[in-house]
Design goal:
The protein has 187 residues and is an alpha+beta fold. It has two domains: 3-39, no CATH class; 50-184, Aspartate Aminotransferase, domain 1 (Alpha-Beta Complex). Helix content is 46%, strand content 14%. It contains six helices and five strands. It has a five-stranded antiparallel beta sheet with strand order 1-2-3-4-5. Strand 3 (108-114) and strand 4 form a beta hairpin. The longest helix has 29 residues, at 158-186. It is globular. 22% of the residues are buried.
């Protein structure tokens, strides 16, 4: 069945559907149109390009314009110092939430969230990481994640933070290697 046949069969005009396929999610689109979009393989959620993610993080830092922006910028620099190959991403953008900075290397290493009184870095595999300097001070009850809340006028233990970043990258790489080995074993 061709693209045009699907449109005619479902009574949806190309003129109405093409802008939807190219743009962000629109809540006013009716269910049959969304169903059609999914059947023809048009995906609404597109990954944010690395340049765009970096620009979004730059904009967030500038928008904050206070100690939180300075802290987020410092954390970002430390992350890049610890792992020059780290990738910046911008994820989880929603109508009421502009999104979150994410740093990845073989999977999510950590996120950088900003709140009124803290800048939080959440490590995706934090519970599996050794933290001899006791930097983790938030989300301690979970089985997977751990976080660090940075407050105003708080000094960052740069060496220990970089070591956590490196350990998180190593943990991600180990999990990726295990998955690949398991996948290759099944073949």
């Amino acid at each position: 069945m061709s693209f045009d046949d699907l449109f005619q069969r479902d009574g949806v005009t190309k003129r109405r559907i093409e802008p939807l396929a190219a743009g962000p999610f629109r809540a006013d689109v009716c269910a049959p149109q969304l169903n059609l979009i999914s059947r023809i393989g048009v995906h609404m959620k597109k990954p944010v390009a690395a340049e765009s993610a970096s620009a979004s993080i730059d904009a967030k830092i500038k928008e904050l314009g206070d100690w939180r922006g300075e802290t987020l910028a410092k954390i970002r620099q430390l992350i890049h110092d610890a792992d020059p190959d780290i990738q910046e991403e911008w994820k989880w953008a929603k109508p009421k939430s502009p999104g979150t900075p994410v740093w990845s290397h073989d999977g999510i290493v950590c996120t950088g969230e900003t709140y009124k009184s803290v800048v939080k870095t959440t490590f995706a595999r934090g519970a599996a990481l050794k933290d001899p300097s006791d930097l983790f001070n938030s989300s301690l009850e979970g089985n997977v994640r751990r976080a660090i809340d940075f407050r105003e006028d708080e000094k960052i233990n740069e060496g220990a933070f970089k070591q956590l970043i490196r350990a998180a990258v190593e943990a991600n790489s180990a999990v990726l290697s295990q998955r690949q080995a398991k996948k290759n074993k099944k073949k």
